[in-house]
Write a structure and sequence with these properties.
It contains 13 helices and nine strands. The protein has 316 residues and is of the alpha/beta class. It has one domain: Rossmann fold, CATH 3.40.50. A nine-stranded mixed β-sheet has the order 1-2-3-5-4-6-7-8-9, sandwiched between helices. The longest helix is centred in the middle third of the chain and has 14 residues. The chain is globular. 46% of the residues are buried.
Length: 316
């Protein structure tokens, strides 16, 4: 059974608190207080801002909680916004052991949600956050009631861009991802259609500054299950099988249609799986939709949240 407990600051290793305190170049963009939870002996960093209905934001690869910074800032006046850094990401611990399979990420998120006793949760998910977040919702469905999904997947697919497939080549891919940091650096200009601000560029890659700290970036790339023999194939199938229980839940699909990774084909599959979902494609945004179209994303999400405030809520 997964164990979890919220930590006081003096219980967190100094190396982690020092890393979280060093926000040179992006402090104004990411001024939030750091919190940590210990899950199965690992230290997980998270942000917890505001009060009200819970918005749980789950990032992908190679991002971290920094990606949600403007939504945290803009929505925490009305909501309790909670943003987790996956193990190996952001300001969380980055062990060099084999703990990065999809099932492990989902299990940690379930423990996180249960430890904080979150209910009536609205999930915001991007990239790998879709599989991890929907996997968590599938395991504790009574705790979730609304979903805002963007440029993500939560089902099996054989679609994998060549530029990502190359990063999975043994040895060559490891060197590219961990020694040269090519995946994270390339994302700064390949994942966004608009030039990123200096603070955004600095913040997005800040936690991935050496070989050891890039372990999860590499593991996420290698965890894409294309064959039944893959370590995460069964876990992703379970996530996919669990989607149908949310077919009638309030859902908003916001999609950057210039995304070459989670392309419009993924958007169309979500639309087929969730025919009742509200849809908001953004034609000139790419994968980093929170950078390319923040204002439109915020307005659309806020309208959805206000409109569906009572939909799907448990009876009083």
């Amino acid at each position: 059974m997964t164990s979890a407990r919220i930590l006081n600051s003096d219980e967190v290793p100094q190396a982690l608190t020092a890393c979280a305190a060093n926000r040179d170049g992006f402090q104004e963009d990411y001024p939030f207080e750091s919190h940590w939870m210990e899950i199965d002996g690992r230290f997980i960093h998270f942000v917890d801002q505001g009060q009200g209905p819970v918005l749980l934001m789950v990032h992908g690869n190679p991002t971290w909680s920094f990606a949600w910074r403007r939504l945290v800032r803009d929505l925490s006046s009305e909501y309790r916004v909670i943003v987790i850094d996956h193990l190996g990401c952001g300001f969380s611990e980055k062990p060099q052991t084999d703990e990065y399979a999809l099932d492990n990420h989902i299990g940690r998120l379930v423990a996180f949600v249960e430890q904080l006793d979150l209910n009536d949760v609205t999930l915001f998910a991007h990239d790998w956050g879709g599989a991890i977040g929907m996997g968590c919702a599938g395991r504790v469905p009574d705790r979730f009631r609304r979903f805002v999904l963007m440029n993500t997947a939560a089902f099996r697919s054989q679609r994998i861009p060549l530029r990502i497939a190359v990063c999975r080549i043994p040895l060559l891919g490891t060197i590219a991802l961990r020694a040269w940091n090519l995946f994270s650096l390339a994302a700064l200009w390949m994942a966004a259609e608009q030039p990123l601000s200096p603070a955004a560029r600095k913040g997005l890659i800040a936690p991935y500054d050496n070989w050891a700290n890039r372990v999860a970036v590499k593991e996420f790339v290698h965890d894409i299950p294309l064959q039944q023999s893959h370590r995460s194939y069964a876990a992703l199938k379970a996530v996919e099988d669990g989607l149908k229980q949310f077919q009638h839940s309030p859902m908003l699909l916001v999609w950057g249609m210039k995304d070459w990774c989670f392309s419009p084909e993924f958007y169309r599959e979500f639309c087929e799986r969730f025919p009742e979902a509200e849809r908001h494609p953004i034609t000139d945004a790419g994968h980093y939709i929170f950078e390319d179209a923040h204002d439109e994303l915020l307005t659309t999400a806020r309208e959805f949240l206000h409109r569906t405030e009572s939909e799907g809520a448990p009876p009083a």
